[in-house]
Amino acid sequence: MQTLNDCKKACKVKVKKLHAKTDLKQRLLSFGIMKEAMIEVLEYSPAKSTIEIKVDKMRIALRAKEAELVEVEKI
Amino acid sequence: MNEDLKACPVTANHIKVALVGQPNVGKSMLINSVSDAHLHVGNFSGVTVEKTEVLFDYKGYHFTIVDLPGTYAFTDYTIEERVTHDYLCAEAYDIIINVVDSTSLEKNLQLTAELMSMSKSIVIALNMTDEAKKEKIEIDAAYMSDLMGIPCVKVSAATKEGIESLLNSVVEVQEIEQQVPKLIFSEPVEEEIAIIEEYLEKHKYQAVNTYRNIAINLLKNNKKTYAKLHDDPIWTELQPILIDASQHIELHHDSDDIKEAFAEEYASFNRGIVAEVLTQEIKEEKKTLTEKIDTVLIHPFMGIPIFLFFMWGLFQLTFEIGSIPMDWIDAFFGWLGETVGNTISNEDVRSLIVDGVIAGVGAVVLFVPNIIILFVGIALLEGTGYMSRVAFLLDGFFHKFGMHGQSFIPLVTGFGCSIPAYMSARILKNDRDRLLTLFVIGFMSCGARLPVYVLFVGAFFTAEMAGNALFIIYISGAILGLLAAKILKMTAFKGEDEPFVMEMPKYRLPSIKLVWHTVLTKTMMYLKKAGTFIAAATILIWFLSNYPKNIELEQIYSVKIEQAVTQSEKSILQNKLAEESLEQSYLGVIGKFSEPIFEPLGFDWKMSVALQTGLAAKEVVVATLGVLYALGEDVDEENDSLVNAISKNISFASAVSFIVVVMIYLPCLAASVVFTREAGGIKYFFYLLGFTSIVAYTLAWITYNVVSFLYH
């Protein structure tokens, strides 16, 4: 399974499935991170603990741990 | 009739509007533009997050617009979302103005779609039209109104374009009977809605809302709708229909979560709308300004040094520039005390007014310049969108200690003064993160503790070593704070790690008016609440240290003082009088009473009293020690004789353990009041009191015993 966390900088992917639960899932959904959404990886913070992505036109930061719960596929 | 009025404050000539939108769509700007034209802004603060109300008259209607905190979705995850969610569900209002950012329409409509199933009338304000034009985005508002069944009005809060037509639309919507928004779902969902509608129709279910609306809410698992229908006889037959419907929809969406299914439904509806109404001249893919700035500011190596530089600058400003008006304020209250004091002949009343009220209020007002500068800085950091970048950079480090990237700002502010630090913890959106940070802020030694440190360090270390000792005190405080955070996270604030999913908004220059407004509101709140409270508390402490009066003692000493020959003899006698008066005052009694408690830490009753008066403010610790070690009231940390008295009367071990307590226990009364308000309840104050006292006591006890052992 490939997750958002496995992506390199500047790579573009499509969301396949959300493995997050309840609150976090709601949060991801409200930011437009849902099935079929296109995501571009913009930047990693030092030590790769946080990752910045772009969904539609919105830039979103999330922890690597949370990015792991977003299953993606390369396009 | 009268009863009705009481239950529902919304009357015919009133239009109460709830202003709702996602964060960073310019809602506050918009309300400012509206109120500019029809001035009268009042602030009604809630417990932790304020909502602003604007009142004005327009076209024969009394308007009330309530500005609700920004929310991405209609959930109750953060405090802001909760305020908005609860308001929209429980309060009485007529119309929702949904503010959306025209430059990012699809994302913004996600919230709109949720609002559309609330059976409230909506007007959509397509805000930031000017920015959209710059980005060559064209939205057909008339067509959009048609498609959604909701009036959509192009506005720009910045250029004040379209404000009137927005208000006109609100009036129009108010005058029509019921608005039917056209929210269209995918085929499977529409099928299920039709089945439920049909069922309700067959049973002639009585309801205010349309059947379609009830059906949608049932499918969305809306608790309120469920509760209503649950007690109805039709429920027994309805339930299996609903179970079937959910299964069908979940199957269609390949998900076991109906909320996810609906989010996807909304998204595809919005995609459809956007595809119809929005045209954008497609430019070649170029980096936006925000992306260019971000390549520098969140650069993996340069990002943190740049941020540290900004923080350093902010603190320089806060404490360098802030100290200039502070001197004036200090001088003013000194002058005021003297002037007022001269007009009062009764000594007790004069002492109460001058030493109690004026001195106490003065101490509070003294911090206002600091607070203003710091809050301007924080408002700028937040308003420009830089704060999110900081959180992005620092979250990795702070997360190790169970805190959030944004905790950094309040913690660093804590080195200056705990009061603005507690207030700035509001930038943390999540309750648990915010509480944890609030509990840890006290470990960052504030400016007021410096005099105590300087006094004790001066008494026990050589001048060369003093700087190092001070540095060690500050650093160990910070390290203790991080450890405390870790421990609290593993015990009291245990639980799943709060997710860190956060928008990195576009960089924008915040409007000066808006920044000033925020700062002014916060400053006034500080002055009002902390001001009244601390004035009362200083009066109490003044009373405790001055009463009961012992006339006999005073008479004996006044005779002795008159007989004294030299000036120094007189002052020694005066100090002795002060010491003995204090010893038999209520405060002295408390000190003696509590002495056994503090004995294991190596404190005598004087040190115990100093710690207790220090609860009011840390500056008082030095003053109290000065009085108690009989040196008169005018002492400060540079007073040589106090330093001598301390090194003579207090053992090294007691001194170190004293510093440990000062480092950890409650910062001061004003800060405790602010803490209680920010944490959201008096119980949190008692938790903080308990937590800091236990930690301070334990660590001081260990320190005292270890140091005594080493130095014997």
User: What helical percentage do the residues of chain A reach?
Assistant: 10-25%
Q: Strand order, main sheet of chain B: write it out.
A: 2-3-4-1-5-6-8
Q: How does the overall form of chain B come out from the CA principal axes?
A: elongated
| CATH secondary-structure class of one domain in chain B | Alpha Beta
Q: Give start-end ranges of low-pLDDT stretches of chain A.
A: none
- How many strands, what sense, and barrel or not for the largest sheet of chain A? 5 strands, antiparallel
Most extensive interface between two protein chains, with residue counts: A-B, 35 and 42 residues
Summarize the structure.
The complex is a heterodimer of chains A (75) and B (712). With 75 residues, chain A is an alpha+beta fold. Helices cover 17% and strands 41% of the residues of chain A.
Question: What would you say this structure looks like, in words?
Answer:
The complex is a heterodimer of chains A (75) and B (712). With 75 residues, chain A is of the alpha+beta class. Chain A contains 2 helices and 5 strands; from the N terminus they run E-H-E-E-E-H-E. Chain A has helices at 22-30, 64-67, and strands spanning 12-18, 38-44, 50-55, 58-63, 70-74. Chain A has a 5-stranded antiparallel beta sheet with strand order 4-3-2-1-5. In chain A, 49% of the residues are buried. The mean pLDDT of chain A is 88. Chain B is of the alpha/beta class and 712 residues long. Helices cover 65% and strands 7% of the residues of chain B. Chain B starts with a helix and ends with a helix. The A-B interface holds A 18, 20, 23-32, 34-37, 42-47, 49-50, 52, 56-63, 65-66 and B 72-73, 75, 77, 103-104, 106-107, 110, 253-255, 257, 259-260, 263-264, 267, 290-291, 294, 298, 300-301, 303-304, 388, 391-393, 395-396, 399, 405, 497, 499-505.
